[in-house]
Amino acid sequence: MSDVEAEATPGSYVTPGQEYTRDTNYIEDRITRDAVDGWPVEAGRYRLVAARACPWANRSVISRRLLGLEDAISLGLPGPTHDARSWTFDLDPGGVDPVLGIERLQEAFFKRTPDYPRGITVPAIVDVPSGKVVTNNFPQITLDFATEWEEFFRDGAPDLYPDALRDEIDDVAEVIFRDVNNGVYRAGFAGSQGSYERAYTRLFDRLDWLEERLADQRYLVGDTITEADIRLFTTLARFDAVYHGHFKCNRNKLSEMPVLWAYARDLFQTPGFGDTIDFEQIKKHYYIVHSDINPTGIVPAGPDPRGWLAPHDRDELGGRPFGDGTPPGEPRPGEEVPSLTAARV
């Protein structure tokens, strides 16, 4: 196959007759204060590559913003679509990332491991001087942001992973990953009726559990926003726009679950959450890239995203979104997303 043909080849996401299993073998190096893996915490050295469309990448963008790490870790934003080879920087002038000088994220993986054999995934952190990927281990990236980069936090940064709550955060995050974050993919990429129905049932059983858990408490763990909320939010933000129809998660919409819908709107309207969400990029990614699920490539016009701005009344439950901290300021120039106040169906 020629390079041109490879660039145009879409990925395949469904294996007929089989249950979807996520490949969780990532580059597990960590960036830490003690540089145990050879990568020290150092402002200006690393670039976070995180597509707006991807829920796993969205977590890292939210964490970076809430903690105020924008000056310490730069942000590269691939476009919403990609082919079988790689995410590309087609939103940047000339289709080249202005810091890394590459057209495809794949190039940074190949600098680390020639002919890297696994998926080219976001988020990925790239060492700018060498151009090599340091890690694409998305669950650990945000935990390390919260625990290893304190020296570079903004004044008023929240504690997203408080010591006293870590065991509970980890437990809640694990079931959310298994049944919700990855559960929508297990339904959407199912290769058989049985595997789809099992994933569907687990997903909505867990959403019902979350509906009950959040009925009397504003946040998932404790009375402030934590890592657990960030992990749940990025799936909820995509639910009605993508997962309900595209992934056949259609028992009901998020907007038909009163508690979860109010909870999600509460977070969306909190600085650092909704101002990282670009619904047009999200829809383009799923409906165009997953061509074996949506072969026409038609992107839905709806739903109208302005419902995310409706009052949520969750503040009546108490809670302190940022604990003893403060909200982040406005997004940095070049990192803004389209305003929903101007959105049209």
Sequence-ordered SSE layout with sheet pairings:
Layout: H1 3-8, E1 46-49, H2 55-67, E2 74-76, H3 106-112, E3 124-127, E4 132-135, H4 138-148, H5 166-181, H6 183-188, H7 193-213, H8 227-243, H9 258-268, H10 279-289
Parallel strand pairs: 1-2
Antiparallel strand pairs: 1-3, 3-4
Helix pairs in contact: 2-4, 2-8, 5-7, 5-8, 8-9
Please tag this protein with its features.
345 residues, mainly alpha, 2 domains, globular, disordered N terminus, Glutathione S-transferase
CATH class of the largest domain: Mainly Alpha
Strand order of the largest sheet: 2-1-3-4
Low-confidence regions: 1-8
Shape, per Cα inertia axes: globular
Output the CATH topology of the largest domain. Glutathione S-transferase Yfyf (Class Pi), Chain A, domain 2
Report mean pLDDT, rounded to a whole number: 95
Oligomeric organization of the protein chains: single chain
InterPro entries: Glutathione-S-Trfase_C-like, Glutathione-S-Trfase_C_sf, Glutathione_S-Trfase, Glutathione_S-Trfase_N, GST_Omega-like_C, GST_Omega/GSH
Pfam family, one: GST_N_2
Organism: Frondihabitans sucicola
Protein name: Glutathione S-transferase
